[in-house]
């Protein structure tokens, strides 16, 4: 069955349908990872977006129960060049098509993903939607141009209630802005006694748990769309250890007086080189973000840049000069991607031990 991918500039790409028929308007972005499509689909940082994979062959190892990064995926659509409907892998439990139908995500394959990627690199990300072959393209393009990007993505994917993930180690509060399960896995692996809280939980409630530290998770959208979280982080920084990942990194920067800006087409993939400015070590990192911290705006804050992207020289990490607070724009938990920066969770544990707030 035919399906259309329609962009706000009027471009129309014809392909073959797979997945569901739940068509929604989203921001079309591309990911350069060669593997990890299941983790990408279930990464809640993609809430409100239609993901295009630049690697051509997708679906060849199927979908399994263990590699999800969320229970309910929030991506709005999936675009690939070649779809494999006969996966061959010992861990495979269902095809990608069956999975997309089950979680109500529409997909399209057989389109020129290279041409679309080049367009996005030139013009930047843009609104798009999948549609039936007989859709009124002119009307859809008009709607795309008139539709604003979402501003409530974090609310959509954050936990609605406080809940524990018990253990016997350091007590850590995880602020959930759309947290990947990989972050939970890494903290649990280090015996952290976790308490997961919604994105809008006040600082006094968080500190009421007497945490040894707080982790600010990844999440979707513009960090300025969650001003209540920025204020919470501002209050937390002088009181406890604060570790931010991706959106958490941006929130720390905003809370300390820096600024953020929207990247032209974002960083999304598992092969982004980042340099540690202190040691000079280069890490290959997994990334997924459309906003970045303005380096010049750090000059008027108590933050210093610790990591920098080698591709475009954007800010990839900061550290507070006065408090045990640090963050990175990339994903140390990977999922999918290389584990070059996994030891940053160990660094977090070392800082918790050193601060020893509640021995």
UniProtKB/TrEMBL annotation:
<dbReference type="Pfam" id="PF00117">
    <property type="entry name" value="GATase"/>
</dbReference>
<comment type="subunit">
    <text>Composed of two chains; the small (or glutamine) chain promotes the hydrolysis of glutamine to ammonia, which is used by the large (or ammonia) chain to synthesize carbamoyl phosphate. Tetramer of heterodimers (alpha,beta)4.</text>
</comment>
<keyword id="KW-0315">Glutamine amidotransferase</keyword>
<feature type="binding site">
    <location>
        <position position="250"/>
    </location>
    <ligand>
        <name>L-glutamine</name>
    </ligand>
</feature>
<feature type="binding site">
    <location>
        <position position="221"/>
    </location>
    <ligand>
        <name>L-glutamine</name>
    </ligand>
</feature>
<feature type="binding site">
    <location>
        <position position="45"/>
    </location>
    <ligand>
        <name>L-glutamine</name>
    </ligand>
</feature>
<feature type="domain" description="Carbamoyl-phosphate synthase small subunit N-terminal">
    <location>
        <begin position="1"/>
        <end position="131"/>
    </location>
</feature>
<keyword id="KW-0055">Arginine biosynthesis</keyword>
<dbReference type="GO" id="GO:0004088">
    <property type="term" value="F:carbamoyl-phosphate synthase (glutamine-hydrolyzing) activity"/>
</dbReference>
<feature type="binding site">
    <location>
        <position position="219"/>
    </location>
    <ligand>
        <name>L-glutamine</name>
    </ligand>
</feature>
<protein>
    <recommendedName>
        <fullName>Carbamoyl phosphate synthase small chain</fullName>
        <ecNumber>6.3.5.5</ecNumber>
    </recommendedName>
</protein>
<comment type="function">
    <text>Small subunit of the glutamine-dependent carbamoyl phosphate synthetase (CPSase). CPSase catalyzes the formation of carbamoyl phosphate from the ammonia moiety of glutamine, carbonate, and phosphate donated by ATP, constituting the first step of 2 biosynthetic pathways, one leading to arginine and/or urea and the other to pyrimidine nucleotides. The small subunit (glutamine amidotransferase) binds and cleaves glutamine to supply the large subunit with the substrate ammonia.</text>
</comment>
<feature type="active site">
    <location>
        <position position="333"/>
    </location>
</feature>
<dbReference type="InterPro" id="IPR035686">
    <property type="entry name" value="CPSase_GATase1"/>
</dbReference>
<comment type="similarity">
    <text>Belongs to the CarA family.</text>
</comment>
<dbReference type="GO" id="GO:0006526">
    <property type="term" value="P:L-arginine biosynthetic process"/>
</dbReference>
<comment type="pathway">
    <text>Amino-acid biosynthesis; L-arginine biosynthesis; carbamoyl phosphate from bicarbonate: step 1/1.</text>
</comment>
<dbReference type="InterPro" id="IPR036480">
    <property type="entry name" value="CarbP_synth_ssu_N_sf"/>
</dbReference>
<dbReference type="Pfam" id="PF00988">
    <property type="entry name" value="CPSase_sm_chain"/>
</dbReference>
<dbReference type="GO" id="GO:0006541">
    <property type="term" value="P:glutamine metabolic process"/>
</dbReference>
<feature type="binding site">
    <location>
        <position position="291"/>
    </location>
    <ligand>
        <name>L-glutamine</name>
    </ligand>
</feature>
<dbReference type="InterPro" id="IPR006274">
    <property type="entry name" value="CarbamoylP_synth_ssu"/>
</dbReference>
<dbReference type="GO" id="GO:0044205">
    <property type="term" value="P:'de novo' UMP biosynthetic process"/>
</dbReference>
<dbReference type="GO" id="GO:0005524">
    <property type="term" value="F:ATP binding"/>
</dbReference>
<dbReference type="InterPro" id="IPR017926">
    <property type="entry name" value="GATASE"/>
</dbReference>
<comment type="pathway">
    <text>Pyrimidine metabolism; UMP biosynthesis via de novo pathway; (S)-dihydroorotate from bicarbonate: step 1/3.</text>
</comment>
<feature type="active site">
    <location>
        <position position="331"/>
    </location>
</feature>
<feature type="region of interest" description="CPSase">
    <location>
        <begin position="1"/>
        <end position="170"/>
    </location>
</feature>
<dbReference type="InterPro" id="IPR002474">
    <property type="entry name" value="CarbamoylP_synth_ssu_N"/>
</dbReference>
<keyword id="KW-0436">Ligase</keyword>
<feature type="binding site">
    <location>
        <position position="247"/>
    </location>
    <ligand>
        <name>L-glutamine</name>
    </ligand>
</feature>
<keyword id="KW-0665">Pyrimidine biosynthesis</keyword>
<dbReference type="GO" id="GO:0006207">
    <property type="term" value="P:'de novo' pyrimidine nucleobase biosynthetic process"/>
</dbReference>
<keyword id="KW-0028">Amino-acid biosynthesis</keyword>
<keyword id="KW-0067">ATP-binding</keyword>
<feature type="active site" description="Nucleophile">
    <location>
        <position position="246"/>
    </location>
</feature>
<feature type="binding site">
    <location>
        <position position="288"/>
    </location>
    <ligand>
        <name>L-glutamine</name>
    </ligand>
</feature>
<dbReference type="InterPro" id="IPR029062">
    <property type="entry name" value="Class_I_gatase-like"/>
</dbReference>
<dbReference type="InterPro" id="IPR050472">
    <property type="entry name" value="Anth_synth/Amidotransfase"/>
</dbReference>
<keyword id="KW-0547">Nucleotide-binding</keyword>
<feature type="binding site">
    <location>
        <position position="290"/>
    </location>
    <ligand>
        <name>L-glutamine</name>
    </ligand>
</feature>
């Amino acid at each position: 069955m035919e399906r259309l991918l329609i962009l706000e500039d009027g471009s129309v790409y014809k392909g073959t349908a797979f997945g569901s028929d739940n068509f929604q308007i989203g921001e079309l972005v591309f990911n350069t990872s060669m593997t990890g499509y299941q983790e990408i689909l279930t990464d809640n940082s993609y809430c409100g977006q239609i993901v295009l994979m630049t690697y051509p062959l997708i679906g060849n190892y199927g979908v399994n129960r263990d590699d999800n990064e969320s229970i309910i995926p929030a991506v709005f659509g999936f675009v690939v060049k070649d779809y494999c409907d006969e996966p061959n892998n010992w861990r495979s439990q269902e095809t990608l098509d069956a999975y997309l139908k089950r979680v109500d995500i529409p997909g399209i394959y057989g389109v020129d993903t290279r041409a679309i990627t080049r367009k996005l690199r030139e013009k930047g990300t843009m609104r798009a939607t999948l549609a039936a072959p007989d859709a009124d393209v002119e009307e859809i393009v008009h709607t795309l141009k008139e539709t604003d990007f979402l501003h409530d993505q974090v609310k959509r994917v954050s936990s609605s209630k406080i809940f524990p993930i018990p253990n016997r180690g350091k007590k850590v509060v995880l602020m959930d802005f759309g947290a990947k399960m990989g972050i939970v896995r890494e903290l649990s692996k280090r015996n952290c006694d976790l308490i997961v809280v919604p994105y809008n939980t006040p600082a006094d409630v968080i500190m009421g748990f007497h945490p040894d530290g707080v982790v600010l998770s990844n999440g979707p959208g513009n960090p300025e769309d969650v001003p209540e979280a920025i204020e919470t982080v501002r209050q937390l920084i002088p009181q406890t250890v604060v570790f931010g990942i991706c959106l958490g990194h941006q929130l720390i920067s905003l809370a300390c007086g820096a600024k953020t800006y929207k990247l032209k087409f974002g960083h999304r993939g598992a092969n982004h080189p980042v340099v540690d400015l202190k040691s000079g070590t280069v890490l290959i990192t997994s990334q997924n973000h459309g906003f970045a911290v303005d380096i010049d705006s750090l000059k008027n804050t108590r933050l210093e840049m610790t990591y920098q992207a080698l591709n475009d020289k954007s800010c990839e990490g900061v550290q507070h000069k006065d408090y045990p607070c640090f963050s990175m724009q990339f994903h140390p938990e990977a999922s999918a991607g290389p584990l070059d920066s996994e030891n940053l969770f160990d660094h977090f544990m070392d800082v918790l031990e050193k601060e020893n707030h509640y021995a």
